[in-house]
UniProtKB/TrEMBL annotation:
Any Pfam family: PTE
Keyword Endoplasmic reticulum attached: no
Name by which UniProt lists this protein: Phosphotriesterase-related protein
Protein family according to the UniProt entry: Belongs to the metallo-dependent hydrolases superfamily. Phosphotriesterase family.
List of residues that carry N6-carboxylysine: 146
Keywords: Hydrolase, Metal-binding
Length: 323
């Protein structure tokens, strides 16, 4: 655990991270599909310009830092994101991990300890290199680990990713965030496995918890020590903001203000849910939605400046530094 946090424009003390959105994406892609089946809405220059404008807009709203959770499996391109970091005033933190909710590429299934091609676990090698040395031959280091399980639960390959992430967490102190399936109460299985693997559950975010309206489920996750990601504001196809606000206020009333994190899981461009689809089906799903619409609602409902500071500044800092 370190009070110094690697960003794409250099290390900063955790105390200087400021207002932080802990679960966002800038560009979600698929390198093979991008080459062999280019998406008709992808225009790199236009997307980069749009991303720069959006990031500068966030800075004007008071956002200091975002965490880009686009990891391998979602088309991470750290050089492209670093260019955006240089062109804007918002700090960007990046992540390592492997995004799959079911199976891994054959390379990971056949290479490693006790596998067809005997050797060290390449996932562990990847995660540690990204955190300790740099990503993809750069000196740009990851500040978070990202893992995923969904309705299928903890499959064999998903458990492999969780195990490698736990190893990297124990070695480096870097926190872990998850993609979870709230409908199946999937965060509980994630917590259980990570705990068995020696992970400090206070350095874990159970992602997408804000999509649940099951208060007992959310309390169980928080009571075990983890942060709850209320990280899909504006994502109307996975739940309503009214429900998210209602559950957030219920947890605040119960005293869980030190366990809550706010964000959007938004992207400037994603070939999975491209801009035309988002405009039609989730028009408020963008990284400024929290500051433009949700925070004013929360303030009107009694969330004061001190509590807002805890949710957007202190809780992210504690997660990222362990302090």
């Amino acid at each position: 655990m370190s009070s110094m946090i690697p960003t794409l424009t250099g290390e900063v003390p955790g105390a200087e991270l400021g207002t932080t959105l802990v679960h966002e994406h800038l560009i979600v892609s698929d390198p093979q599909l991008d080459r062999d089946l280019p998406h008709p809405e992808w225009d790199e220059a236009a997307v980069m310009a749009r991303a720069e404008t959006q990031l500068q807009g966030l800075a004007e709203l008071g956002v200091d830092t975002i965490v880009d959770l686009t990891v391998p499996g979602l088309g991470r391109d750290v050089r492209r994101v670093a260019e955006l970091a240089r062109r804007t005033s918002v700090r960007i933190l990046v992540s390592t991990g492997w995004y799959t909710s079911d199976v891994l590429p054959h390379f990971f299934r056949l290479n490693g300890p006790g596998r067809l091609v005997e050797g060290p676990d390449p996932l562990v090698e990847l995660f540690l290199r990204d955190i300790q040395q740099g990503i993809a031959g750069t000196d740009l280091r990851a500040a978070m680990l990202k893992v995923c399980s969904d309705r299928a639960g903890i499959t064999t390959d998903v458990a492999h990713v969780f195990t490698a992430a736990a190893h990297a967490h124990r070695s480096t102190g870097v926190p872990i965030t998850t993609h979870s399936d709230p409908a199946s109460r999937g965060g509980l299985d994630q917590q259980r496995l990570l705990g068995e693997l020696g992970v400090d559950l206070e350095r874990v975010v159970i992602g997408h918890s804000g999509d649940s309206t099951d208060l007992s489920y959310l309390r169980e996750l928080a009571d075990a020590g983890s942060f709850l990601g209320f990280d899909r504001f504006g994502m109307s196809h996975t739940g309503s903001d009214e429900d998210r606000i209602r559950m957030l206020l219920a947890l605040l009333e119960l005293g869980y203000q030190d366990r809550l994190l706010l964000s959007h899981d938004a992207a400037v461009f994603s070939r999975i849910t491209p801009p035309s689809w988002r405009a039609a089906h989730a028009p408020q799903w963008s990284m400024d939605h929290l500051h433009r619409r949700i925070l004013p609602r929360l303030r009107a409902l009694g969330v004061d400046a001190a509590l807002e500071h805890q949710l957007l500044v202190e809780n992210p800092r504690r997660l990222l530094t362990g302090a």
